[in-house]
Amino acid sequence: SGRRNWNAAKDLQRYRHHYPDLVESENQEEEEMWNLSFYKNEIRFLPQGLHIETLLESWWDNYEVLEENHSYIQWLFPLREHGMNWRAKPLTCQEIQAFRKSKEVMQRFRRAYQLMLRFYGITLINEETGELTRAENWAERFQNLNWFSHNNLRITRILKCLGEMGYEHYQVHLVKFFLTETLVKETLPNVKRSALDYFLFTIRSKQKRRELVHYAWQHFKPRGSFVWGPHEKLLKYRARSTESQLHKKDEDKQETPGKQCDDSVEKDQNRSSEEEQKAGDAADMQPKVNDEDVKEKLSECVLKGGDGEEEKEASFTQQEKDLNSETEEVQGTAENDCTKESKKRKLDANMADAKQSGPLKSPTDIENISRNLGECAI
User: What is the span of the domain harbouring residue 111?
Assistant: First the structure.
């Protein structure tokens, strides 16, 4: 349509900022952690579900069931927000911490991820890095993805859950995979819009998100219609080298205005609440700002990691450079004039002293002195 999906942008900004408007009870007992109990194989998913071990074993490559059943996805990939299945429970911060501490639970989580990847025609070839490739039956599974758009919502949920569980590197590989298939190889035309509006902006790392936005822009056709980042910034963008990454880790900090569930995640101390209100990577949440202002600010901020003041500072810096250059030129001219005037004054003073202290020099001597002083001034 040539326009950005701003509802999606606001939703993804809320997720990246760890749901700043969400208030949770801090005194939950373990027996109330429904998602954790499900992953511990203690309860079935609701309604009319299975234990997770039974699901992971009996539904492997059972594509028809995975396509038609709509109750399991919110239990396999829970989020800190409500979904369509009212029997599923939202994820809590305490559950996230408990998930990450349990090797048994995280192993099942990775198996669930691989189950869904295979359903989509994708294979996880490196469990440590998250690297992906096409499955042998990719053509058949890609056809299913193009036919049934509700799978795009499922993929967005999976990406969000990966981020909550500490698998941000899995996120990056999955988003890159879909950008390649939709924009480069053009095998998933009906997934392209979701990949750009939703998948791309689940990445919490500003550096990785910038790299993926730039990658999408490079392969988008026609490039002039790309609306997910300001073109002037995309033209100037250069991916950071490994050395600069080591020395500039602060730029890769995650956006953290809301309550984080992982105590090990770094907090961005340099970002003020005022800046967060002014601009975000995806949406401005201020009710006082109209939609047009929001769109303009968001478009400018996609590659800048949500810092709305960065462009202004760059502009002011350039103006200061130009002003300093002009000032130096004026000062240089003024100094030359002052030098000449100073030499003339010294000549007049010397002549006055000569009158008082002794006989005047000859006209020839005076002309020589004047000529010498003139050459020095020039």
Answer: 32-120
Tokens 């992971």, located at residue: 56
Residue 211 in domain: yes
**Phi, psi angles (nearest 5°) of residue 133:** -150, 170
**Mean pLDDT lowest for which of 27-31, 235-239, 321-325?**
321-325
Is pLDDT at 1 greater than 90 in this prediction? no
Rounded CA separation 114/170 (Å)? 11
> 123 pairs with which residues across the strands?
133
Alpha-carbon distance of 309 to 70, in angstroms, equals 44
How high is the pLDDT of residue 193?
96
**Where do we find the tokens 């511990």?**
40
173-200 core/surface letters (b: 16 or more CB in 10 A; e: else): bbbbbbbbbbbeeebbeebbebbbbbbb
Give CA separation, 77 vs 71, 107, 160, in Å. Answer: 11, 14, 8
DSSP letters along 165-187, please? TT-HHHHHHHHHHHHIIIIIS--
Number of domains in the chain: 2
Residue 202 lies in a domain: yes
What is the identity of the amino acid at 281? D
Q: Is 84 domain-assigned?
A: yes
pLDDT score, position 255: 56
Write out the two tokens for 324.
């300093």
Lowest mean pLDDT among 20-34, 189-203, 249-263, 311-325: 311-325
- Report the candidate in 208, 270, 201 with the shortest Cα–Cα distance to residue 16: 201
The Cα 272–Cα 13 span in angstroms is 16
Confidence of residue 266 (pLDDT cuts 50, 70, 90): very low
Q: How far apart are CA 57 and CA 211, in angstroms?
A: 37
